[in-house]
């Protein structure tokens, strides 16, 4: 879709307020600019506290929320938006995709769950998708090695970056885990 078509896709008179919440300032700025060119009235926040305050003061019709923020969990923002506006279309963005949090996000009212890095076209498509419409499968799905690496990273983060505890939970030798953590993420 070109920029003209995407703006035309928005319904005239529709509430196009959009709250974008992410603690990655360059990504937040780029996405906000891209969504403005697609016809949204964008408001941004860099923390759970700031986002919840903005959501309660002026509940948006749309929201894009990062799962992990410096001061907490993006699901708290989704819940705050849902409290004030149950028709809001919310999307969760995360670098740590897993099924449990995707299910929780949907139960709290999120309409989609996108893995980072997601581009503006993916975000726009998810926000404007109709209820029965299904997302197309990804052209470049994660490899099995990448899925394994993501899982290890998620457990490592959950264990507050404690290698010994992570190795114990993953039933893995500590040195093996250290070698995996020292490598770059597989493609």
From TrEMBL:
InterPro entries: ActR_PrrA_rreg, Bact_response_regulator, CheY-like_superfamily, Sig_transdc_resp-reg_receiver. Residues 17-131 form the Response regulatory domain. GO terms for biological process: phosphorelay signal transduction system. Keywords: DNA-binding, Phosphoprotein, Transcription, Transcription regulation, Two-component regulatory system. The modification 4-aspartylphosphate is found at residue 66. GO terms for molecular function: DNA binding. This is Two-component system response regulator. It comes from Mesorhizobium helmanticense.
